[in-house]
Structure formats: C-alpha cells, structure tokens
C-alpha cells in the first residue's frame, strides 16, 4: 500500500463518514508526491498526519426560538484547523447540508488557500446545519445570537476570525458581531465581512468574485488571450457569482448564465446584473422570476436537468466560472465543456469540480484554476479588513482593489512558478498545493511538535 493509501485508510477509520474531507485530502496528498520525493523532511517530521488532523474541533448545540414560540435546535461547528502561520481564518456556512465532514473539507482547503495569499492567516471554518431560507429576520437574529453565545469564547481578533460563506452575509455577521460585543464588552475586529459603517472593508463584498476574474485574467494574459469578447458561463447567484459577473462585464466579457439550487438562467444577450442583484441581494427570490422579467431569457428548473448532470455546463462558452458549491461540476459536465470549446475554468466556489472533472481539465491542458488559488481574494481582503481594524483606519475602495489585484497576481505567479519547478507547467493544482503546503509545513517544523 502506498503512503497516500495508508494515510487515507487511517483517516477513514479515525474520521468516518466524511467523503468531502477525504476528497480534499487525497487531492492535496497526490499533488505533494513530487515534493516528498525531493524533500524528505516533511515525512520525517510526520507533517502529513499532523496537518490533516485539526488542532481543535468545536461542536455545540444551538437552541433558538422560532416565530411560533417553538424551541428549535441546530448543530454548530468551528474547526480550528491550523495556526502555524497566523490566527485561524475562514468563513461560517449556514446550510442544511452542513456536517462536520463538510466543515473539515472547507477548513482543510482554507489552510493552503490562506498560505497562498502570502498573508499571516491560519486555516479555520465553521457553520451550522441551520437553513436561513424562509426564516424571518427575527429568527435569523435569534439563531445568530444563540450561535455566538457558545462561539464567542473561542474567537478573537488574534486567535480566530470568522467571516461569511454560503448563507452568511453582512446581515448575519452584524447579528453575530453585536452579540459578541454584548458578551465581551469589546469592539474589535473579531469578524470580517462587516458592513462599512461598523468596521467593514470597502471591496470585501466584491473581493471573491473580482479576485476570481483577476486570476483568470492573469492566466489569459500569459497565454496571449484576453477577457474581452469571451462568452462566460457562471454558476451560482450569490455573493461570489454576482461579483464575478460584475467584473466580467467591466472587462467586456459576456456572462450568459447564473444558477441557484432550483434551476438556471440562460440569457444569450447577457445576464442583467441589476435584475440579478435585486432578485438575490434584496428579495432573496427564486431565479425563475428573472425569466418573468426578461422574456428572452430561458429558465430551466433542476427537475429538467439530465440525470446526474448540472445543465449550466452544457451552455457553449469560452470560459467557465463555477461559483455555487462543492462537486457541482462532474466528469460528464467537464467533457461537455471541453467539447464545446471551453478554454478556461476558474473556480470561485470551494472544490466545485469532482476529481474526475479536474483530471479531464488537466489532461486537456486547458487553463484550469483550482478554487484554493482562484477564490483566495475573499479571504485575502478579509485580512486587509483585519489590518484596517487593527490600525483603526479605512482604506478607499481603489486602495483595497489595487492590493487585491496584486495579491491575485502573486498567487498566480507562485502557483505557476511552483508548477514549473516540478516540471508540470500547466498544472496549477500541483503548483497551488505544493506552494501552499510548503510554507505551512516549514512553519510547523520551525515551531516544534505541538
Ligand atoms: N463568500 C466568500 O467570500 C467566499 C465564498 N467561497 C465559496 O463560494 C461558493 C459560493 O459562496 P457564496 O456566493 O458566498 O454563497 P451565497 O450563499 O451568497 O450563494 C450561494 C449560491 O450557490 C447556490 N447553491 C448553494 N448550494 C447549492 C447547491 N447544493 N446546489 C446548487 N446551488 C447551490 C445558492 O442557491 P440558493 O440561493 O438557491 O441557495 C446561491 O445561489 C461556496 O463554495 C463558498 O464556499 C469561496 C471563497 C470566499
Ligand atoms: O473571508 C474569510 O475569512 C473566509 C472566506 C472563505 O470562507 C473562503 O475563502 O472560503
């Protein structure tokens, strides 16, 4: 049995029932093989077994009262995965599919993503199986307050700094920040993704989507191409998708799709960003309403997708931006994108492509940017928010955006130079994993066995 197989077998025994976590670990371990062949120190210090075990896992009950006066109970999680290069940093996800395996996969990815930003942030993630859909504002507030009644004792501006993710935006961060402040009496940068008047950073809302497009731009430029005139397929209709679409328009590309958990929109003349923002950021409406407003757009409900497929990826395009959720693009979807002439895939979401889809992209040698590199602009800008909070200043939108652009360029260069160093120039999966890992692993060695 190879070292990787042994590690995965052991992991499955010690942490049963966490398929997404095994998937994330397997991908990283496979990428690291050429590094281990070259540098023995990582195996000698048993870094692998140490890095796949979270430093701390917090699981707690979140009891809250709904609008009918009934007591509801959800599970809360915070996985403090690795603090070798900085305080734990990563979002909170509120979605019914959340489990400890999902949070562990996200926290594990966050270690390498945060390392790639070049900033001093460790990896963490958290969330709850609470479903914000259909809940009133007061229910959301009561849930957030109860969530923080437990979590507040584990977080702090130099220990663990949560932010948003699926189902958690400025409103939820506000309720959690308010409760933290009430319990501790401290006004400090313990969350990022805050609204601007109470400590948020300009451009944080836009950062993940904008950063993903900046990353794509770097890949295109290196390959003698440009965004201008490219037809783009985007999945998702949340924070990341919306600002990916906005930045594509700013660069004269044409985004023609968006999707939510119930279906997708194909608008051949281009997604209307104003309508999308109104429906999703203001009304939290279903995307079917988009086709009622724009009658030349086509809405396809999930029930009409071919079995086992995500129909968004069957729309012909030059560039694809998966921005919804994990494993939303499988091998058949990847082959269809390739058949239709797609030349670039940049992941705004975390681990949206299955391992087989990733393999198809790498084999076809198209430009492929894994999420932990392409979507790192969100967490990087969160660190800029922490820096502004700590020094009690606020930078302008342009100042933050310029820094974001530079960070995304550096992540691209780091991943591609590392891929070159290991003789696989087009393989940014390998480049991102090795570069992200090396910095954290070296710090762990320096800091001894802890
Ligand atoms: N926000 C950030 O700064 C960052 C986010 N990410 C990643 O980006 C992705 C999107 O996050 P974000 O935009 O913030 O989240 P949002 O909650 O704002 O939006 C998520 C979008 O994805 C859709 N979606 C969620 N789950 C599913 C599903 N199972 N099937 C189909 N569609 C689904 C949602 O549809 P519906 O509205 O119907 O629920 C919604 O349109 C996630 O993978 C997240 O981890 C990565 C880096 C940073
Ligand atoms: O901004 C952050 O701290 C985290 C963003 C996030 O959750 C992610 O990068 O997946």
Automatic annotation (TrEMBL):
<dbReference type="InterPro" id="IPR033524">
    <property type="entry name" value="Glu/Leu/Phe/Val_DH_AS"/>
</dbReference>
<dbReference type="InterPro" id="IPR050724">
    <property type="entry name" value="Glu_Leu_Phe_Val_DH"/>
</dbReference>
<feature type="binding site">
    <location>
        <position position="208"/>
    </location>
    <ligand>
        <name>NAD(+)</name>
    </ligand>
</feature>
<dbReference type="InterPro" id="IPR046346">
    <property type="entry name" value="Aminoacid_DH-like_N_sf"/>
</dbReference>
<feature type="binding site">
    <location>
        <position position="239"/>
    </location>
    <ligand>
        <name>NAD(+)</name>
    </ligand>
</feature>
<dbReference type="InterPro" id="IPR006095">
    <property type="entry name" value="Glu/Leu/Phe/Val/Trp_DH"/>
</dbReference>
<dbReference type="GO" id="GO:0005829">
    <property type="term" value="C:cytosol"/>
</dbReference>
<dbReference type="GO" id="GO:0004354">
    <property type="term" value="F:glutamate dehydrogenase (NADP+) activity"/>
</dbReference>
<dbReference type="GO" id="GO:0006537">
    <property type="term" value="P:glutamate biosynthetic process"/>
</dbReference>
<feature type="site" description="Important for catalysis">
    <location>
        <position position="165"/>
    </location>
</feature>
<dbReference type="InterPro" id="IPR014362">
    <property type="entry name" value="Glu_DH"/>
</dbReference>
<dbReference type="Pfam" id="PF02812">
    <property type="entry name" value="ELFV_dehydrog_N"/>
</dbReference>
<dbReference type="GO" id="GO:0000166">
    <property type="term" value="F:nucleotide binding"/>
</dbReference>
<dbReference type="InterPro" id="IPR006096">
    <property type="entry name" value="Glu/Leu/Phe/Val/Trp_DH_C"/>
</dbReference>
<feature type="active site" description="Proton donor">
    <location>
        <position position="125"/>
    </location>
</feature>
<feature type="binding site">
    <location>
        <position position="164"/>
    </location>
    <ligand>
        <name>substrate</name>
    </ligand>
</feature>
<keyword id="KW-0560">Oxidoreductase</keyword>
<feature type="binding site">
    <location>
        <position position="113"/>
    </location>
    <ligand>
        <name>substrate</name>
    </ligand>
</feature>
<dbReference type="Pfam" id="PF00208">
    <property type="entry name" value="ELFV_dehydrog"/>
</dbReference>
<dbReference type="InterPro" id="IPR036291">
    <property type="entry name" value="NAD(P)-bd_dom_sf"/>
</dbReference>
<comment type="similarity">
    <text>Belongs to the Glu/Leu/Phe/Val dehydrogenases family.</text>
</comment>
<keyword id="KW-0547">Nucleotide-binding</keyword>
<dbReference type="InterPro" id="IPR006097">
    <property type="entry name" value="Glu/Leu/Phe/Val/Trp_DH_dimer"/>
</dbReference>
<comment type="subunit">
    <text>Homohexamer.</text>
</comment>
<feature type="binding site">
    <location>
        <position position="89"/>
    </location>
    <ligand>
        <name>substrate</name>
    </ligand>
</feature>
<comment type="function">
    <text>Catalyzes the reversible oxidative deamination of glutamate to alpha-ketoglutarate and ammonia.</text>
</comment>
<protein>
    <recommendedName>
        <fullName>Glutamate dehydrogenase</fullName>
    </recommendedName>
</protein>
<dbReference type="InterPro" id="IPR033922">
    <property type="entry name" value="NAD_bind_Glu_DH"/>
</dbReference>
<keyword id="KW-0520">NAD</keyword>
<feature type="binding site">
    <location>
        <position position="382"/>
    </location>
    <ligand>
        <name>substrate</name>
    </ligand>
</feature>
<feature type="domain" description="Glutamate/phenylalanine/leucine/valine/L-tryptophan dehydrogenase C-terminal">
    <location>
        <begin position="201"/>
        <end position="448"/>
    </location>
</feature>
<feature type="binding site">
    <location>
        <position position="110"/>
    </location>
    <ligand>
        <name>substrate</name>
    </ligand>
</feature>
């Amino acid at each position: 049995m190879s070292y990787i197989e042994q590690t995965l077998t052991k992991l499955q025994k010690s942490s049963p029932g966490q398929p997404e976590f095994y998937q994330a670990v397997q991908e990283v371990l496979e990428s690291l093989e050429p590094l281990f062949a070259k540098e023995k120190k990582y195996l000698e210090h048993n870094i692998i077994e140490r890095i796949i075990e979270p430093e701390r896992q917090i699981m707690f009950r979140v009891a809250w009262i709904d609008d009918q006066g009934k007591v509801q109970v959800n599970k809360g999680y915070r996985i403090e995965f690795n603090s070798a290069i900085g305080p734990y940093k990563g979002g909170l996800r509120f979605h019914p599919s959340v489990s400890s395996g999902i949070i562990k996969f996200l926290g594990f990815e966050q270690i390498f993503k945060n390392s790639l930003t070049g900033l001093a942030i460790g990896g963490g993630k958290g969330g709850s199986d609470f479903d914000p859909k259909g809940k009133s504002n007061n229910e959301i507030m009561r849930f957030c307050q109860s969530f923080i009644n437990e979590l507040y004792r584990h977080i702090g501006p130099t220990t663990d700094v949560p932010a948003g993710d699926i189902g958690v935006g400025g409103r939820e961060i506000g309720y959690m920040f308010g409760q933290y402040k009430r319990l501790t009496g401290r006004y400090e940068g313990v969350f990022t993704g805050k609204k601007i008047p109470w400590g948020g950073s300009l451009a944080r809302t836009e950062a993940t989507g904008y950063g993903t497009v900046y990353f794509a731009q770097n890949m295109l430029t290196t390959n003698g191409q440009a965004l201008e005139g490219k037809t783009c397929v985007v999945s998702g209709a949340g924070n990341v998708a919306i600002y990916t679409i906005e930045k594509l328009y700013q660069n004269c590309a044409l985004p023609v799709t968006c999707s939510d958990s119930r279906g997708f929109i194909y608008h051949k003349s281009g997604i209307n960003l104003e309508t999308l923002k109104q429906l999703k950021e203001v009304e939290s409406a279903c995307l079917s309403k988009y086709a009622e407003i724009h009658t030349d757009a086509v809405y396809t409900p999930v029930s009409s997708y071919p079995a086992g497929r995500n129909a968004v990826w069957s729309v012909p395009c030059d560039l694809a931006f998966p921005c919804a959720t994990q494993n939303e693009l499988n091998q058949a979807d990847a082959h269809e994108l390739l058949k239709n002439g797609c030349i670039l895939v940049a992941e705004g979401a975390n681990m949206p492509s299955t391992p087989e889809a990733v393999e198809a992209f790498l084999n076809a040698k198209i430009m492929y940017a894994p999420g932990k590199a392409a979507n790192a602009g969100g967490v990087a800008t969160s660190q800029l928010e922490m820096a502004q909070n700590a020094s009690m200043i606020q930078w302008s939108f342009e100042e933050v955006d310029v820094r974001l652009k530079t960070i995304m360029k550096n992540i691209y260069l780091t991943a591609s130079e590392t891929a070159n160093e290991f003789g696989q120039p087009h393989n940014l999966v390998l480049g991102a994993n090795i570069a992200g890992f090396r910095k954290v692993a070296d710090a762990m060695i320096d800091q001894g066995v802890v």
